[in-house]
Fold this protein.
Amino acid sequence: MSNNDRYLKDMWNKAENLLGSSEYERSTIERFISKRSNSTAERIKKMIYVDIVVKSVVLLVLIIDMFLYLGTINVIAVCVTSMVLLTVLILFEFRMLKRFSEIVDYGKSTKEKLASMLTYLRSDFFSTLLVISIGYPFMFIGGTLLYFYTTYGYVRPLDGQDIIVFSTFIIAGLIFNFYINKKQVDYQVKHLETCLSELNDSSLQMVSDNLERQRKQDITNKILLFIVLAFGFVLLLVVFKNIGFLVH
Amino acid sequence: MIQKPNKKAFSELIEQYQAIIHKVTMVYANGRADREDLFQEICLQLWKSYPNFREEAKFSTWMYRVALNTAISNVRKEKRSLLFEPLRDNDRITEEGNDEKDKVKLLYRAISKLNRIDKAIILLWLEEKNYEEIASIMGTSKNNVSVKLVRIKRKLEELVLETVSQES
């Protein structure tokens, strides 16, 4: 060991002595571990949990709608289609949560931890945001059906202007939600990239390889989800259009 | 995978090993409030990651891993640390001989100027971890650790000299 090394370690050990060995008592530490984390990972997890709760409430509202409009086949068809699609989305979110729990393990090596988080933020995070955003139209459908029943007792016919206004609000909501969440993680992505490139040159390559591997693994699931959603939305639009223009 | 203990037992365990967390917070956070925030976040992540702790690894090594990963990933207050406010008189350092205190402050001040990854590597080296352990914690090769350490120590020397000349 060189003199400089010894000098550095001496100074460090002195710091340890000057610091003292214990500052926080057990009760304080117990309080610390009972609090909520402020990490990005925890915020994303919370976002998914909250969305599952919101989607479950919408599911409940749709069930109520179904009973309120018993006898109106078109409305029941809308409710059932929406419920099936919402269930698919909720199941997808549970899968995301399971995968996410593996990502947020802080006991991994630094390279693995940073790379897995970066891989998630660059790929699955967008699917998560998409699944969360797709839920909004169902909130609108469930809420509108309930509102129409309590106010008019039937589904009020929607004219062209109504459809334009409602769809504008829905699309604006989707874009706003997507943009805000994306902005929030952009900084985190940049930070992770910097740390990985500081660790060594091949770390970012590892993320690219992970992304490629994951893309191949997920392609079947994504195609299936896309087919179910596309089919469901088309069906929903057709039946919803029927309610708006044909049911009086 | 091991069974999660109750919060009381786990807190006692952390209390015993809390010096490790203090060292990490001293290197990664400036000021008492930031240090306490980071200490709290590390405790939380230790608690959450504990079920994944495998007993073949040393508890202290696993603690370093979680603590450093938390500190490195923590970007919430990054803006403040990026601007780098010079380390204030450390409120945790007790009154001792001024010379000793100044040297320690100088070392911390120099380390706080390193990037997040270099901070972790030098901290582990100062904690007498061998190259293999450092490589395993950081997830890199022994060779990379040794190359990096040479560079970091040189940089640290420059930073110490720079800080001394700035202060004088």
Notes: The helical segments of chain B are 7-28, 32-49, 59-73, 78-83, 98-111, 116-126, 131-138, 142-167. Chain B touches chain A through 65 residues (CB under 8 Å). The domain at 86-168 of chain B is CATH 1.10.10.10 (Arc Repressor Mutant, subunit A).
